[in-house]
Amino acid sequence: MTRQYEGVKALIFDAFGTTVDWRGSMIRHTARFGLPEETADLWREQYQPQLETVRSGRRPWVNLDVLHRIGLDIVLDELGNDLPERYRRTLVKAWHRLDPWPDVVEGLTQLKETHIIAPCSNGHIAQSVNLAKYAGLPWDAILGAELARAYKPDPLVYRASADALGLDYDEVCMVAAHNDDLHAARAAGLRTAFVPRPTEDTEPTSDWDIVAPTFKELAR
């Protein structure tokens, strides 16, 4: 065990991009309705701006399904597509059915033997539970945004996750493929682990406590 890893009792994980391949999954889901491949990327570009409406206080707390629907409507309007209402609802729920990266289930299963594991995602509880069922993610708990009623990188999200587990902040390690996520987690007092993904950050930009190429290597 490395010095940086001593005392860690729980690992909490970013979901979109780190644990599941949102882009490949959403390209597949949107293609079912005849939408171009760019739809997935345009929709994802709406993600942070819609989160910011809540973070800034311009919009009261709403869950990610609501924000995803707002973003989808904007994108479809930009594309000049009048997709029927029932299909829009189906596409929003597609964010509950995203494929895990190939190393994830095995890596999480190994980590679960010795540590508490849970998502610390901007997804709400229903979305995270459905995603876990679909992708076979063996979480011990569901943590993150809805618990804190805030969105990352608000420090409340990371600290509420540690508090819910009854752990000190430095007993919890945030795992992400996003350097900005880890910067926020470190500022909140958590340990940090970087795992690169081809659609997210591919290189660490700081001296994170752990850098591992896959979840399986993280478990080792």
Description:
The chain is α/β, with parallel strands linked by helices and 220 residues long. The chain is 45% helix and 10% strand. The radius of gyration is 17 Å and the shape is globular. The relative contact order is 0.18. The model has no long low-confidence stretch (mean pLDDT 96).
Q: Which percent bin holds the helix content?
A: 40-55%
Would you tell me the overall average pLDDT? 96
Query: How many H/I helical runs?
Result: 11
- Overall shape: globular
Strand fraction equals 5-15%
- SSE string, helices as H and strands as E: EHHHHHHEHEHHEHEEH
Poorly predicted regions: none
For the largest sheet, list the strands in their spatial order: 3-2-1-4-5-6
Structural class: alpha/beta
User: What is the CA-based Rg, rounded?
Assistant: 17 Å
Number of beta strands: 6
Distance between the termini: 9 Å
